[in-house]
Specification:
Elements (H helix, E strand, L loop, with lengths): L2 E7 L5 H11 L6 E8 L2 E8 L2 H8 L7 E7 L14 E3 L2 E6 L5 H10 L9 H16 L2 H11 L4 E7 L2 E10 L4 E4 L3 E5 L11 E4 L4 E6 L2 E5 L11 E2 L15 H7 L1 H9 L6 H4 L10 E6 L1 H18 L2 E6 H4 L10 E7 L5 H12 L3 E6 L5 H5 L2 E4 L12 H20 L5 H12 L1 H9 L2 H11 L4 E6 L2 H17 L2 E6 L16 E6 L5 H12 L4 E6 L8 E5 L8 H19 L18
Parallel strand pairs: 15-16, 15-17, 17-18, 18-19, 20-21, 20-22, 22-23, 23-24
Antiparallel strand pairs: 1-4, 1-10, 2-3, 2-4, 5-6, 6-7, 7-8, 8-12, 9-10, 9-11, 11-14, 12-13
This protein binds 5-amino-5-deoxy-1-O-phosphono-D-mannitol.
The site of 5-amino-5-deoxy-1-O-phosphono-D-mannitol has 15 residues, from helix 9 and helix 17.
Protein backbone atom coordinates (compact mmCIF):
# COMPACT_ATOMS: atom_id res chain seq x y z
CA UNK A 1 0.00 0.00 0.00
CA UNK A 2 1.20 3.61 0.43
CA UNK A 3 1.35 6.09 -2.40
CA UNK A 4 4.55 7.57 -3.75
CA UNK A 5 4.95 10.59 -5.97
CA UNK A 6 8.02 12.55 -7.01
CA UNK A 7 8.94 15.20 -9.53
CA UNK A 8 11.98 17.08 -10.77
CA UNK A 9 11.70 20.07 -13.11
CA UNK A 10 13.94 22.73 -14.66
CA UNK A 11 11.90 25.61 -13.26
CA UNK A 12 8.23 24.65 -12.56
CA UNK A 13 7.28 24.72 -8.88
CA UNK A 14 6.49 21.10 -8.18
CA UNK A 15 4.70 21.47 -4.81
CA UNK A 16 1.17 21.45 -6.26
CA UNK A 17 2.14 18.54 -8.56
CA UNK A 18 3.16 16.48 -5.54
CA UNK A 19 0.04 17.42 -3.59
CA UNK A 20 -2.24 16.62 -6.57
CA UNK A 21 -0.46 13.30 -6.97
CA UNK A 22 -0.85 12.45 -3.29
CA UNK A 23 -4.56 13.26 -3.40
CA UNK A 24 -4.99 10.85 -6.30
CA UNK A 25 -2.97 8.22 -4.46
CA UNK A 26 -4.77 8.53 -1.14
CA UNK A 27 -6.70 5.37 -2.08
CA UNK A 28 -3.46 3.49 -1.29
CA UNK A 29 -3.43 4.63 2.33
CA UNK A 30 -4.37 7.68 4.35
CA UNK A 31 -2.86 7.25 7.81
CA UNK A 32 -0.32 10.04 7.35
CA UNK A 33 1.27 12.12 4.62
CA UNK A 34 4.66 13.71 4.06
CA UNK A 35 6.84 15.54 1.61
CA UNK A 36 10.52 16.25 1.23
CA UNK A 37 12.20 18.71 -1.12
CA UNK A 38 15.49 20.45 -1.62
CA UNK A 39 15.37 24.23 -1.79
CA UNK A 40 18.40 26.52 -2.02
CA UNK A 41 20.55 23.54 -1.13
CA UNK A 42 18.56 22.75 2.03
CA UNK A 43 16.60 19.56 2.60
CA UNK A 44 13.13 20.21 4.00
CA UNK A 45 10.82 17.53 5.38
CA UNK A 46 7.21 18.13 6.34
CA UNK A 47 5.01 15.33 7.73
CA UNK A 48 1.57 15.09 9.27
CA UNK A 49 -0.48 12.42 10.95
CA UNK A 50 -3.69 12.58 8.95
CA UNK A 51 -4.77 13.35 5.43
CA UNK A 52 -3.09 15.06 2.49
CA UNK A 53 -5.26 18.15 3.02
CA UNK A 54 -3.57 18.63 6.41
CA UNK A 55 -0.16 18.48 4.75
CA UNK A 56 -1.38 20.90 2.09
CA UNK A 57 -2.22 23.50 4.74
CA UNK A 58 1.41 23.39 5.89
CA UNK A 59 3.16 23.80 2.55
CA UNK A 60 0.87 25.14 -0.13
CA UNK A 61 2.50 28.55 -0.10
CA UNK A 62 5.99 27.13 -0.74
CA UNK A 63 7.40 28.41 -4.08
CA UNK A 64 10.37 27.80 -6.41
CA UNK A 65 10.72 24.16 -5.48
CA UNK A 66 12.00 22.05 -8.40
CA UNK A 67 12.73 18.67 -6.83
CA UNK A 68 10.76 16.68 -4.28
CA UNK A 69 9.28 13.36 -3.18
CA UNK A 70 6.05 12.70 -1.27
CA UNK A 71 4.15 9.91 0.38
CA UNK A 72 0.77 8.88 1.74
CA UNK A 73 1.02 6.03 4.26
CA UNK A 74 -0.82 2.88 5.21
CA UNK A 75 1.02 1.84 8.35
CA UNK A 76 2.76 -1.54 8.40
CA UNK A 77 5.55 -0.98 10.95
CA UNK A 78 4.94 1.34 13.84
CA UNK A 79 1.96 3.35 14.99
CA UNK A 80 0.22 5.99 12.95
CA UNK A 81 2.10 9.12 14.02
CA UNK A 82 4.31 11.86 12.61
CA UNK A 83 7.59 10.12 13.54
CA UNK A 84 6.70 6.97 11.64
CA UNK A 85 5.35 8.93 8.65
CA UNK A 86 7.51 9.15 5.52
CA UNK A 87 9.84 10.60 4.23
CA UNK A 88 12.59 9.19 6.43
CA UNK A 89 15.98 10.82 6.50
CA UNK A 90 19.20 9.19 7.65
CA UNK A 91 22.45 11.04 7.01
CA UNK A 92 22.67 11.95 3.37
CA UNK A 93 19.65 9.91 2.30
CA UNK A 94 15.92 10.72 2.34
CA UNK A 95 13.40 8.19 1.10
CA UNK A 96 9.72 7.39 0.71
CA UNK A 97 8.85 3.73 0.48
CA UNK A 98 5.98 1.43 -0.39
CA UNK A 99 6.34 -2.22 0.69
CA UNK A 100 7.82 -4.14 3.60
CA UNK A 101 11.50 -4.68 4.38
CA UNK A 102 11.24 -8.19 5.80
CA UNK A 103 14.77 -8.46 7.22
CA UNK A 104 14.62 -5.00 8.79
CA UNK A 105 15.25 -6.23 12.38
CA UNK A 106 18.50 -7.89 11.38
CA UNK A 107 19.58 -4.87 9.33
CA UNK A 108 18.65 -2.51 12.18
CA UNK A 109 20.81 -4.49 14.58
CA UNK A 110 23.80 -4.38 12.22
CA UNK A 111 23.39 -0.67 11.53
CA UNK A 112 23.16 0.05 15.26
CA UNK A 113 26.47 -1.76 15.71
CA UNK A 114 27.93 0.64 13.14
CA UNK A 115 26.71 3.57 15.23
CA UNK A 116 23.39 4.36 13.56
CA UNK A 117 20.51 5.57 15.70
CA UNK A 118 16.86 5.45 14.68
CA UNK A 119 13.92 7.58 15.75
CA UNK A 120 10.95 5.62 14.41
CA UNK A 121 9.62 2.05 14.46
CA UNK A 122 9.41 2.08 10.68
CA UNK A 123 11.21 -0.45 8.45
CA UNK A 124 11.65 2.40 5.97
CA UNK A 125 14.01 4.29 8.27
CA UNK A 126 16.23 1.19 8.30
CA UNK A 127 16.22 1.12 4.49
CA UNK A 128 17.30 4.78 4.52
CA UNK A 129 20.03 3.90 7.05
CA UNK A 130 21.31 1.05 4.90
CA UNK A 131 21.44 3.23 1.79
CA UNK A 132 23.29 5.93 3.74
CA UNK A 133 25.72 3.36 5.09
CA UNK A 134 26.59 1.99 1.63
CA UNK A 135 26.73 5.48 0.13
CA UNK A 136 29.26 6.56 2.75
CA UNK A 137 31.20 3.34 2.26
CA UNK A 138 31.34 3.23 -1.57
CA UNK A 139 30.91 6.93 -2.40
CA UNK A 140 29.18 5.70 -5.52
CA UNK A 141 25.40 5.64 -5.90
CA UNK A 142 25.26 2.72 -8.39
CA UNK A 143 27.28 0.48 -6.09
CA UNK A 144 25.12 1.64 -3.16
CA UNK A 145 21.85 0.68 -4.85
CA UNK A 146 23.20 -2.61 -6.26
CA UNK A 147 24.39 -3.62 -2.81
CA UNK A 148 21.05 -2.57 -1.29
CA UNK A 149 19.15 -4.79 -3.76
CA UNK A 150 21.36 -7.73 -2.78
CA UNK A 151 20.96 -7.24 0.97
CA UNK A 152 17.29 -6.40 1.35
CA UNK A 153 14.49 -8.99 1.52
CA UNK A 154 10.88 -8.05 1.01
CA UNK A 155 9.10 -5.60 -1.23
CA UNK A 156 9.95 -2.03 -2.03
CA UNK A 157 9.23 0.86 -4.33
CA UNK A 158 11.63 3.54 -3.17
CA UNK A 159 12.06 7.15 -4.20
CA UNK A 160 15.24 8.77 -2.87
CA UNK A 161 16.84 12.19 -2.57
CA UNK A 162 20.51 12.71 -1.76
CA UNK A 163 21.50 15.90 0.08
CA UNK A 164 24.59 16.36 -2.05
CA UNK A 165 22.84 15.74 -5.38
CA UNK A 166 19.98 18.27 -5.56
CA UNK A 167 19.08 17.62 -9.22
CA UNK A 168 18.36 13.88 -9.19
CA UNK A 169 15.68 11.55 -7.83
CA UNK A 170 16.70 7.88 -7.52
CA UNK A 171 14.20 5.03 -7.64
CA UNK A 172 14.49 1.31 -6.81
CA UNK A 173 11.80 -1.33 -7.25
CA UNK A 174 10.95 -4.86 -6.20
CA UNK A 175 7.43 -6.32 -5.85
CA UNK A 176 5.73 -2.94 -5.37
CA UNK A 177 4.61 -0.88 -8.36
CA UNK A 178 6.45 2.21 -9.59
CA UNK A 179 6.27 4.17 -12.83
CA UNK A 180 8.36 7.05 -14.20
CA UNK A 181 6.49 9.75 -16.13
CA UNK A 182 8.18 11.68 -18.91
CA UNK A 183 7.43 15.36 -19.49
CA UNK A 184 9.14 18.35 -21.15
CA UNK A 185 11.88 19.67 -18.86
CA UNK A 186 10.09 17.89 -16.07
CA UNK A 187 9.82 14.24 -15.07
CA UNK A 188 7.69 12.38 -12.54
CA UNK A 189 7.63 9.26 -10.38
CA UNK A 190 4.46 7.63 -9.04
CA UNK A 191 3.01 4.44 -7.64
CA UNK A 192 0.32 4.57 -10.26
CA UNK A 193 -0.26 6.40 -13.57
CA UNK A 194 -3.38 8.42 -12.57
CA UNK A 195 -1.26 10.38 -10.07
CA UNK A 196 0.57 12.15 -12.90
CA UNK A 197 -1.97 12.06 -15.74
CA UNK A 198 -2.73 15.76 -15.38
CA UNK A 199 0.85 16.42 -16.51
CA UNK A 200 1.84 13.58 -18.85
CA UNK A 201 0.45 10.40 -20.40
CA UNK A 202 3.90 9.02 -21.21
CA UNK A 203 5.59 6.72 -18.76
CA UNK A 204 8.03 3.87 -18.20
CA UNK A 205 7.19 0.89 -16.02
CA UNK A 206 9.94 -0.18 -13.64
CA UNK A 207 10.25 -3.96 -13.23
CA UNK A 208 11.59 -5.87 -10.23
CA UNK A 209 15.26 -5.27 -9.31
CA UNK A 210 15.51 -2.28 -11.65
CA UNK A 211 16.60 1.15 -10.52
CA UNK A 212 16.61 4.59 -12.09
CA UNK A 213 18.07 8.08 -12.04
CA UNK A 214 15.73 10.91 -12.94
CA UNK A 215 16.63 14.53 -13.60
CA UNK A 216 14.48 17.24 -15.19
CA UNK A 217 15.41 16.18 -18.70
CA UNK A 218 16.84 12.71 -18.40
CA UNK A 219 15.59 9.30 -17.30
CA UNK A 220 18.04 6.38 -17.10
CA UNK A 221 16.94 2.94 -15.98
CA UNK A 222 19.35 0.16 -14.99
CA UNK A 223 19.18 -3.55 -14.21
CA UNK A 224 20.47 -4.79 -10.85
CA UNK A 225 24.02 -5.07 -12.23
CA UNK A 226 24.09 -1.49 -13.45
CA UNK A 227 23.53 -2.15 -17.16
CA UNK A 228 21.53 0.63 -18.83
CA UNK A 229 18.19 -0.71 -20.08
CA UNK A 230 16.30 0.32 -23.18
CA UNK A 231 12.69 0.46 -21.99
CA UNK A 232 9.44 0.99 -23.90
CA UNK A 233 7.89 4.39 -23.38
CA UNK A 234 4.19 3.65 -22.79
CA UNK A 235 1.29 5.97 -23.47
CA UNK A 236 -1.77 5.82 -21.21
CA UNK A 237 -4.76 4.71 -23.26
CA UNK A 238 -7.53 4.76 -20.64
CA UNK A 239 -10.28 7.31 -20.96
CA UNK A 240 -12.03 7.39 -17.60
CA UNK A 241 -9.97 9.78 -15.53
CA UNK A 242 -12.94 11.25 -13.76
CA UNK A 243 -12.71 11.10 -10.01
CA UNK A 244 -15.40 13.67 -9.48
CA UNK A 245 -18.07 12.94 -6.87
CA UNK A 246 -20.53 15.01 -8.86
CA UNK A 247 -23.78 15.58 -6.98
CA UNK A 248 -23.24 12.64 -4.65
CA UNK A 249 -22.31 12.86 -1.01
CA UNK A 250 -19.97 9.89 -1.26
CA UNK A 251 -18.07 8.09 -4.00
CA UNK A 252 -19.53 4.83 -2.74
CA UNK A 253 -23.09 5.95 -3.47
CA UNK A 254 -22.06 7.29 -6.86
CA UNK A 255 -20.35 4.00 -7.68
CA UNK A 256 -23.32 1.90 -6.53
CA UNK A 257 -25.59 3.94 -8.77
CA UNK A 258 -23.19 3.60 -11.72
CA UNK A 259 -23.62 -0.18 -11.74
CA UNK A 260 -26.33 -0.42 -14.43
CA UNK A 261 -23.92 1.18 -16.90
CA UNK A 262 -20.65 -0.42 -15.67
CA UNK A 263 -22.12 -3.93 -15.83
CA UNK A 264 -23.57 -3.27 -19.26
CA UNK A 265 -20.28 -1.83 -20.53
CA UNK A 266 -18.36 -4.83 -19.19
CA UNK A 267 -20.49 -7.50 -20.85
CA UNK A 268 -21.46 -5.49 -23.92
CA UNK A 269 -19.02 -7.18 -26.35
CA UNK A 270 -20.46 -10.63 -25.54
CA UNK A 271 -24.24 -10.33 -25.27
CA UNK A 272 -25.64 -9.34 -28.65
CA UNK A 273 -25.90 -12.92 -29.90
CA UNK A 274 -24.32 -16.34 -29.51
CA UNK A 275 -21.46 -15.47 -31.90
CA UNK A 276 -20.52 -12.62 -29.57
CA UNK A 277 -20.68 -14.93 -26.57
CA UNK A 278 -18.21 -17.21 -28.31
CA UNK A 279 -15.65 -14.38 -28.43
CA UNK A 280 -14.94 -15.34 -24.83
CA UNK A 281 -12.06 -17.79 -24.37
CA UNK A 282 -12.87 -21.47 -24.86
CA UNK A 283 -12.42 -23.20 -21.49
CA UNK A 284 -13.71 -26.64 -22.48
CA UNK A 285 -10.28 -28.29 -22.46
CA UNK A 286 -9.88 -27.62 -18.73
CA UNK A 287 -11.00 -30.17 -16.16
CA UNK A 288 -10.79 -27.72 -13.30
CA UNK A 289 -10.95 -23.98 -12.89
CA UNK A 290 -9.16 -22.39 -9.95
CA UNK A 291 -10.22 -18.88 -9.01
CA UNK A 292 -7.75 -16.93 -6.91
CA UNK A 293 -8.36 -13.47 -5.44
CA UNK A 294 -8.74 -11.46 -2.24
CA UNK A 295 -11.65 -9.85 -0.41
CA UNK A 296 -14.55 -8.78 -2.55
CA UNK A 297 -12.88 -10.11 -5.70
CA UNK A 298 -12.75 -13.54 -4.03
CA UNK A 299 -16.47 -13.24 -3.27
CA UNK A 300 -17.09 -12.62 -6.98
CA UNK A 301 -15.19 -15.87 -7.57
CA UNK A 302 -17.45 -17.73 -5.12
CA UNK A 303 -20.56 -16.60 -7.01
CA UNK A 304 -18.92 -17.74 -10.26
CA UNK A 305 -18.03 -21.14 -8.77
CA UNK A 306 -21.72 -21.88 -8.44
CA UNK A 307 -22.37 -20.92 -12.09
CA UNK A 308 -19.38 -22.89 -13.47
CA UNK A 309 -20.22 -26.01 -11.49
CA UNK A 310 -24.00 -25.95 -11.72
CA UNK A 311 -24.45 -24.92 -15.34
CA UNK A 312 -21.23 -25.82 -17.15
CA UNK A 313 -20.41 -28.91 -15.13
CA UNK A 314 -16.83 -27.75 -14.52
CA UNK A 315 -15.16 -28.26 -11.17
CA UNK A 316 -14.20 -24.90 -9.71
CA UNK A 317 -12.07 -24.21 -6.64
CA UNK A 318 -11.95 -20.72 -5.13
CA UNK A 319 -8.97 -19.69 -3.00
CA UNK A 320 -7.87 -16.67 -1.06
CA UNK A 321 -4.63 -15.59 -2.73
CA UNK A 322 -2.91 -15.14 0.64
CA UNK A 323 -3.52 -18.86 1.38
CA UNK A 324 -3.11 -20.19 -2.14
CA UNK A 325 0.44 -18.89 -2.46
CA UNK A 326 1.61 -21.13 0.39
CA UNK A 327 -0.42 -24.26 -0.42
CA UNK A 328 0.08 -27.31 -2.58
CA UNK A 329 -1.95 -26.28 -5.61
CA UNK A 330 -2.23 -29.58 -7.53
CA UNK A 331 -1.65 -27.81 -10.84
CA UNK A 332 -1.46 -29.47 -14.24
CA UNK A 333 -2.20 -28.47 -17.80
CA UNK A 334 -5.89 -29.33 -17.39
CA UNK A 335 -6.28 -26.56 -14.81
CA UNK A 336 -7.04 -22.95 -15.71
CA UNK A 337 -6.25 -20.43 -12.98
CA UNK A 338 -8.41 -17.30 -13.06
CA UNK A 339 -7.18 -14.28 -11.11
CA UNK A 340 -9.62 -11.52 -10.21
CA UNK A 341 -8.53 -8.04 -9.17
CA UNK A 342 -9.97 -4.57 -9.38
CA UNK A 343 -6.69 -2.73 -8.82
CA UNK A 344 -4.48 -5.27 -10.57
CA UNK A 345 -1.88 -4.56 -7.87
CA UNK A 346 -2.91 -6.75 -4.91
CA UNK A 347 0.33 -8.24 -3.61
CA UNK A 348 -1.04 -11.68 -2.65
CA UNK A 349 -2.93 -12.10 -5.92
CA UNK A 350 0.16 -11.10 -7.89
CA UNK A 351 2.37 -13.52 -5.94
CA UNK A 352 -0.12 -16.38 -6.48
CA UNK A 353 -0.20 -15.55 -10.18
CA UNK A 354 3.59 -15.65 -10.38
CA UNK A 355 3.50 -19.06 -8.71
CA UNK A 356 1.13 -20.44 -11.37
CA UNK A 357 3.25 -18.89 -14.13
CA UNK A 358 6.33 -20.58 -12.69
CA UNK A 359 4.46 -23.90 -12.84
CA UNK A 360 3.85 -23.08 -16.54
CA UNK A 361 0.08 -23.49 -16.23
CA UNK A 362 -2.53 -21.38 -18.02
CA UNK A 363 -3.74 -18.13 -16.48
CA UNK A 364 -6.64 -15.84 -17.25
CA UNK A 365 -7.45 -12.59 -15.47
CA UNK A 366 -10.50 -10.49 -14.72
CA UNK A 367 -8.92 -7.10 -14.08
CA UNK A 368 -10.21 -3.54 -13.94
CA UNK A 369 -7.00 -1.51 -14.29
CA UNK A 370 -5.25 -1.75 -17.62
CA UNK A 371 -1.46 -2.09 -17.62
CA UNK A 372 -1.53 -2.96 -13.91
CA UNK A 373 1.06 -5.43 -12.59
CA UNK A 374 -1.41 -8.34 -12.57
CA UNK A 375 -2.71 -7.51 -16.06
CA UNK A 376 0.84 -7.43 -17.41
CA UNK A 377 1.75 -10.78 -15.86
CA UNK A 378 -1.30 -12.77 -17.03
CA UNK A 379 -1.41 -14.93 -20.20
CA UNK A 380 -4.85 -13.55 -21.07
CA UNK A 381 -6.90 -10.71 -19.59
CA UNK A 382 -10.58 -9.89 -19.78
CA UNK A 383 -11.09 -6.34 -18.59
CA UNK A 384 -14.01 -5.23 -16.47
CA UNK A 385 -15.17 -1.78 -17.53
CA UNK A 386 -16.07 -0.45 -14.10
CA UNK A 387 -14.02 2.74 -14.57
CA UNK A 388 -12.05 4.17 -11.68
CA UNK A 389 -13.38 2.95 -8.34
CA UNK A 390 -12.50 5.44 -5.63
CA UNK A 391 -14.47 4.30 -2.57
CA UNK A 392 -12.46 1.76 -0.62
CA UNK A 393 -15.51 -0.52 -0.39
CA UNK A 394 -15.75 -2.20 -3.75
CA UNK A 395 -19.20 -2.18 -5.39
CA UNK A 396 -19.19 -1.52 -9.12
CA UNK A 397 -15.95 -3.49 -9.61
CA UNK A 398 -17.56 -6.48 -7.86
CA UNK A 399 -20.67 -6.52 -10.04
CA UNK A 400 -18.56 -6.12 -13.20
CA UNK A 401 -16.45 -9.10 -12.09
CA UNK A 402 -19.53 -11.21 -11.38
CA UNK A 403 -21.11 -10.21 -14.72
CA UNK A 404 -17.98 -11.09 -16.70
CA UNK A 405 -17.52 -14.42 -14.93
CA UNK A 406 -21.20 -15.12 -15.45
CA UNK A 407 -21.02 -14.71 -19.27
CA UNK A 408 -17.85 -16.80 -19.22
CA UNK A 409 -19.69 -19.62 -17.41
CA UNK A 410 -22.58 -19.22 -19.84
CA UNK A 411 -20.30 -19.53 -22.87
CA UNK A 412 -18.68 -22.59 -21.31
CA UNK A 413 -22.09 -24.19 -20.76
CA UNK A 414 -23.05 -23.46 -24.38
CA UNK A 415 -19.79 -24.87 -25.74
CA UNK A 416 -20.36 -28.02 -23.70
CA UNK A 417 -23.88 -28.30 -25.07
CA UNK A 418 -25.41 -28.04 -21.62
CA UNK A 419 -27.79 -25.16 -22.33
CA UNK A 420 -30.05 -24.94 -25.34
CA UNK A 421 -29.69 -22.11 -27.82
CA UNK A 422 -33.17 -20.82 -27.05
CA UNK A 423 -32.37 -20.53 -23.35
CA UNK A 424 -29.05 -18.81 -24.09
CA UNK A 425 -30.79 -16.25 -26.26
CA UNK A 426 -33.24 -15.51 -23.46
CA UNK A 427 -30.40 -15.01 -20.97
CA UNK A 428 -28.54 -12.75 -23.40
CA UNK A 429 -31.73 -10.73 -23.79
CA UNK A 430 -31.87 -10.33 -20.01
CA UNK A 431 -28.25 -9.19 -19.96
CA UNK A 432 -29.15 -6.55 -22.54
CA UNK A 433 -31.92 -5.28 -20.22
CA UNK A 434 -29.77 -5.42 -17.10
CA UNK A 435 -29.56 -1.62 -16.77
CA UNK A 436 -33.30 -1.11 -16.49
CA UNK A 437 -33.76 -4.12 -14.19
CA UNK A 438 -31.11 -2.74 -11.81
CA UNK A 439 -32.36 0.83 -12.00
CA UNK A 440 -35.72 -0.07 -10.50
CA UNK A 441 -34.00 -1.93 -7.66
CA UNK A 442 -31.66 0.97 -7.00
CA UNK A 443 -34.60 3.33 -6.70
CA UNK A 444 -36.06 1.64 -3.59
CA UNK A 445 -34.00 3.96 -1.38
CA UNK A 446 -36.74 4.26 1.27
CA UNK A 447 -36.69 0.54 1.97
CA UNK A 448 -32.92 0.49 2.49
CA UNK A 449 -32.89 3.63 4.63
CA UNK A 450 -35.67 2.23 6.80
CA UNK A 451 -33.76 -1.02 7.39
CA UNK A 452 -30.59 0.95 8.10
CA UNK A 453 -32.46 2.82 10.86
CA UNK A 454 -33.48 -0.50 12.37
CA UNK A 455 -29.96 -1.92 12.47
CA UNK A 456 -27.45 0.90 12.83
CA UNK A 457 -27.23 0.65 16.61
CA UNK A 458 -26.81 -3.12 16.67
CA UNK A 459 -23.48 -4.68 17.49
CA UNK A 460 -23.84 -8.07 15.76
CA UNK A 461 -25.54 -8.87 12.48
CA UNK A 462 -25.72 -12.16 10.59
CA UNK A 463 -25.89 -12.86 6.87
CA UNK A 464 -26.93 -16.30 5.73
CA UNK A 465 -27.63 -18.12 2.49
CA UNK A 466 -27.09 -21.38 0.66
CA UNK A 467 -24.95 -22.02 -2.46
CA UNK A 468 -24.77 -18.81 -4.49
CA UNK A 469 -26.71 -16.95 -1.79
CA UNK A 470 -23.99 -17.87 0.70
CA UNK A 471 -21.44 -16.19 -1.62
CA UNK A 472 -23.68 -13.11 -1.68
CA UNK A 473 -24.05 -13.21 2.12
CA UNK A 474 -20.25 -13.06 2.44
CA UNK A 475 -20.07 -9.98 0.27
CA UNK A 476 -23.05 -8.33 2.03
CA UNK A 477 -21.45 -8.93 5.40
CA UNK A 478 -18.05 -7.58 4.29
CA UNK A 479 -19.66 -4.39 2.95
CA UNK A 480 -21.40 -3.73 6.26
CA UNK A 481 -18.30 -4.47 8.35
CA UNK A 482 -15.84 -2.41 6.41
CA UNK A 483 -17.82 0.82 6.26
CA UNK A 484 -20.11 0.77 9.32
CA UNK A 485 -17.73 -1.00 11.77
CA UNK A 486 -20.62 -3.20 12.93
CA UNK A 487 -19.51 -6.74 13.59
CA UNK A 488 -21.19 -9.12 11.20
CA UNK A 489 -20.75 -12.71 10.12
CA UNK A 490 -21.70 -14.57 7.00
CA UNK A 491 -22.76 -18.15 7.51
CA UNK A 492 -23.97 -20.98 5.34
CA UNK A 493 -27.63 -21.09 6.34
CA UNK A 494 -27.54 -24.79 7.18
CA UNK A 495 -24.46 -24.43 9.37
CA UNK A 496 -25.82 -22.01 12.00
CA UNK A 497 -27.26 -24.75 14.15
CA UNK A 498 -23.83 -26.34 14.45
CA UNK A 499 -22.67 -23.63 16.82
CA UNK A 500 -23.25 -20.04 15.75
CA UNK A 501 -26.97 -20.02 16.50
CA UNK A 502 -25.97 -19.61 20.14
CA UNK A 503 -25.20 -15.97 19.29
CA UNK A 504 -28.76 -15.22 18.17
CA UNK A 505 -30.69 -13.33 20.85
CA UNK A 506 -33.74 -11.08 20.98
CA UNK A 507 -33.76 -8.72 17.96
CA UNK A 508 -30.44 -9.86 16.44
CA UNK A 509 -30.73 -8.86 12.78
CA UNK A 510 -30.34 -11.74 10.33
CA UNK A 511 -30.18 -11.07 6.59
CA UNK A 512 -30.68 -13.83 4.06
CA UNK A 513 -31.16 -14.20 0.36
CA UNK A 514 -33.06 -17.05 -1.21
CA UNK A 515 -32.73 -16.96 -4.98
CA UNK A 516 -32.09 -20.61 -5.83
CA UNK A 517 -35.54 -22.14 -6.20
CA UNK A 518 -34.32 -25.68 -5.50
CA UNK A 519 -33.28 -24.87 -1.94
CA UNK A 520 -35.14 -21.70 -1.00
CA UNK A 521 -37.48 -23.62 1.29
CA UNK A 522 -34.47 -24.85 3.27
CA UNK A 523 -33.20 -21.29 3.79
CA UNK A 524 -36.68 -20.20 4.93
CA UNK A 525 -36.63 -23.04 7.47
CA UNK A 526 -33.28 -21.79 8.74
CA UNK A 527 -34.77 -18.31 9.10
CA UNK A 528 -37.62 -19.76 11.11
CA UNK A 529 -35.09 -21.40 13.41
CA UNK A 530 -33.51 -18.03 14.19
CA UNK A 531 -36.89 -16.28 14.43
CA UNK A 532 -37.80 -18.81 17.16
CA UNK A 533 -34.78 -17.50 19.04
CA UNK A 534 -35.80 -13.88 18.70
CA UNK A 535 -33.99 -12.82 15.50
CA UNK A 536 -35.29 -10.03 13.29
CA UNK A 537 -35.13 -11.29 9.68
CA UNK A 538 -34.75 -9.62 6.30
CA UNK A 539 -34.99 -11.70 3.15
CA UNK A 540 -33.99 -10.85 -0.42
CA UNK A 541 -35.80 -13.12 -2.82
CA UNK A 542 -37.50 -13.37 -6.20
CA UNK A 543 -40.22 -15.65 -4.83
CA UNK A 544 -43.61 -14.67 -3.44
CA UNK A 545 -42.84 -15.36 0.17
CA UNK A 546 -45.03 -14.07 2.95
CA UNK A 547 -43.97 -15.16 6.39
CA UNK A 548 -44.58 -13.63 9.79
CA UNK A 549 -41.51 -11.83 11.11
CA UNK A 550 -39.64 -11.83 7.79
CA UNK A 551 -39.30 -8.55 5.95
CA UNK A 552 -39.06 -9.37 2.26
CA UNK A 553 -37.10 -7.33 -0.29
CA UNK A 554 -38.33 -8.49 -3.64
CA UNK A 555 -36.07 -8.72 -6.70
CA UNK A 556 -37.16 -9.51 -10.26
CA UNK A 557 -37.27 -13.11 -11.43
CA UNK A 558 -34.39 -13.47 -13.87
CA UNK A 559 -31.94 -16.20 -14.85
CA UNK A 560 -29.40 -17.39 -12.24
CA UNK A 561 -26.69 -15.84 -14.45
CA UNK A 562 -28.10 -12.37 -13.69
CA UNK A 563 -29.57 -12.85 -10.21
CA UNK A 564 -26.42 -12.23 -8.11
CA UNK A 565 -26.16 -8.78 -9.73
CA UNK A 566 -29.58 -7.97 -8.29
CA UNK A 567 -29.23 -9.63 -4.89
CA UNK A 568 -26.17 -7.59 -3.97
CA UNK A 569 -27.81 -4.18 -4.54
CA UNK A 570 -29.92 -4.16 -1.32
CA UNK A 571 -26.90 -5.41 0.64
CA UNK A 572 -24.70 -2.59 -0.72
CA UNK A 573 -27.26 0.13 -0.07
CA UNK A 574 -28.22 -1.09 3.40
CA UNK A 575 -24.50 -1.06 4.33
CA UNK A 576 -24.16 2.43 2.87
CA UNK A 577 -27.15 3.95 4.70
CA UNK A 578 -26.19 2.22 7.96
CA UNK A 579 -22.66 3.66 7.82
CA UNK A 580 -24.12 7.06 6.98
CA UNK A 581 -26.42 6.99 10.02
CA UNK A 582 -23.39 6.12 12.16
CA UNK A 583 -21.50 9.09 10.73
CA UNK A 584 -18.64 6.92 9.44
CA UNK A 585 -16.02 8.01 6.92
CA UNK A 586 -17.70 5.96 4.19
CA UNK A 587 -15.22 6.40 1.35
CA UNK A 588 -12.13 6.00 3.52
CA UNK A 589 -12.98 3.59 6.33
CA UNK A 590 -10.55 3.34 9.20
CA UNK A 591 -7.46 1.12 8.85
CA UNK A 592 -8.12 0.29 5.19
CA UNK A 593 -6.67 1.19 1.81
CA UNK A 594 -7.96 0.70 -1.68
CA UNK A 595 -4.96 -1.06 -3.09
CA UNK A 596 -3.31 -3.71 -0.91
CA UNK A 597 0.25 -3.93 -2.17
CA UNK A 598 1.75 -5.62 0.88
CA UNK A 599 1.23 -9.26 1.77
O1 LIG B 1 -7.86 -4.71 -6.07
P1 LIG B 1 -8.35 -6.08 -5.69
O2 LIG B 1 -9.66 -6.41 -6.33
O3 LIG B 1 -7.34 -7.15 -5.94
O4 LIG B 1 -8.60 -5.98 -4.13
C1 LIG B 1 -8.98 -7.08 -3.37
C2 LIG B 1 -9.48 -6.66 -2.00
O5 LIG B 1 -8.49 -5.97 -1.31
C3 LIG B 1 -10.72 -5.76 -2.09
O6 LIG B 1 -11.74 -6.38 -2.81
C4 LIG B 1 -11.24 -5.41 -0.69
O7 LIG B 1 -11.73 -6.57 -0.06
C5 LIG B 1 -12.32 -4.34 -0.76
N1 LIG B 1 -12.01 -3.26 0.13
C6 LIG B 1 -13.66 -4.80 -0.35
O8 LIG B 1 -14.63 -3.81 -0.49
Amino acid sequence: MCGIVGSVSSKTNIISILLDGLKTLEYRGYDSAGISYIKDGNLIINKVKGRVKDLEDNIKKESNVTIGIAHTRWATHGKVNETNAHPHNVGNVTIVHNGIIENFSKLKHKLKEKGYEFKSQSDTEIAAGLLDYYYKKYKNIDKTIQKFIKKVDGSYAICMLLNNDPDTIYVIKKDSPLIIGKGENINFIASDVPAILKYTKKYYILEDYEYGKITCNNITIYDKDGNVLKKDLKEYQGSDLSSDKGIYEHYMLKEILEQPSTIRKTVNPYINNIQDLLKLPDLTKYERIDIIACGTAMHAGLAAKYLFEQYSNTKCEVSLASEYRYQNNFLNNKVLSIFISQSGETADTLAALKKVKEAKCDTLGIVNVKESSIARTLDKVLYTEAGTEIAVASTKAYTSQVALLSVLALSNAYRKNLIKEEKINKILEEFRSVSSILNSLLESTNTYEKIAKEIYQKSDIFYIGRTIDYALAMEGSLKLKEISYIHSEAYAAGELKHGTISLITENTPVFASATDKHINAKTISNLKEVISRGAKCYLITDEDIKEDNIKVIKIKKVSMFIKPLLTIIPYQLIAYYTAKLKGCDIDKPRNLAKSVTVE
